[in-house]
Amino acid sequence: MMTQVRQFHFQQGPELLESLTNLSQGLKTNGYWRFQFDYLARQNKATSWYLGMVDGRLCCSYSSLWSTNNLSKTLYRYVSQAQQPKIKAYLSELHQSGQIATLSPKAVLSEILINGWAHKWQLEAALRMKILVDMDTYLTLGAGQAEFIEDDNLVNDLPFRGYSVADLGKISLERQVNWQQFKQFLPSMNLVPILNPEKFLKANLNDSQRIWVEQQVKHKLPLSRIASRLGQDPLEVAKAFFKVSKCWNYPACPSRTVVNTNDYGD
């Protein structure tokens, strides 16, 4: 019987995705693909990238293993309801009481669903977006290696079916093209947008959308903060403000000059 390959090396993002897709198709066990990148090693960053897999499908993406703490960060960032009082108060209580370290992610998700604070599709979409945004960053880091770590308990703590590796890989490559197109004009999501009155006037926006854009610009927040406050995809926020902005203010201490904002962490 042929032994299943559980590790591989890669040189670029597309090669990583190709190997990940091929090897995950025949994966019969649950666990994590752990990725390490030569670039991060040269920068003395010990960060690894973990992709959770259940039945050969992608379920979560973090710089550490799946946990209630990681789940809470994702809910705050990518579920719009997380900005509302009930979910925010619940998660805050878990952190203050220390239950964030003892309650399982499944228990937290069940509590949110039972109380009607969010729909299942919204929670699934949040995990999916977290995977895609992480791919925006990690697929640009070049060469590295991957190994699969078994975890039979993962299926019990992740009550969602997950996502096709091939489908998310295809979407991720399309996002890479979009980010590359923006890079010439928008070198970092940590820049503050300044409206172009002419562009803004001609933009295909209704009254509520115009008010929303003006409110975001008024606070003089960088695009990364705007996306986080809204629980939105940073790529979509970049597209929206690119259409109505004339230039960008650089922060006093700009971060590395890349479009996406994940700083190799959660």
In short:
The chain has 266 residues and is α+β, with helices and mostly antiparallel strands. It has helices at 13-25, 38-42, 68-78, 85-97, 105-114, 120-138, 154-157, 165-183, 197-202, 207-218, 223-230, 234-242, and strands at 7-10, 31-37, 49-54, 57-62, 144-150, 192-195, 245-249.
Task: Describe the secondary-structure layout.
Elements: E1 7-10, H1 13-25, E2 31-37, H2 38-42, E3 49-54, E4 57-62, H3 68-78, H4 85-97, H5 105-114, H6 120-138, E5 144-150, H7 154-157, H8 165-183, E6 192-195, H9 197-202, H10 207-218, H11 223-230, H12 234-242, E7 245-249
* SSE run: EHEHEEHHHHEHHEHHHHE
Radius of gyration: 20 Å
* Class derived from helix and strand content: alpha+beta
Query: What is the topology, as strand order, of the major beta sheet?
Result: 1-5-2-3-4
**Average predicted confidence as pLDDT:** 84
Number of domains: 2
Terminal CA distance reads 39 Å
Uncertain residue ranges: 252-264
Major sheet size, sense and barrel closure:
5 strands, antiparallel
Q: How would you sum up the global shape?
A: globular
Oligomeric state of the chains in view: single chain
Number of helices: 12
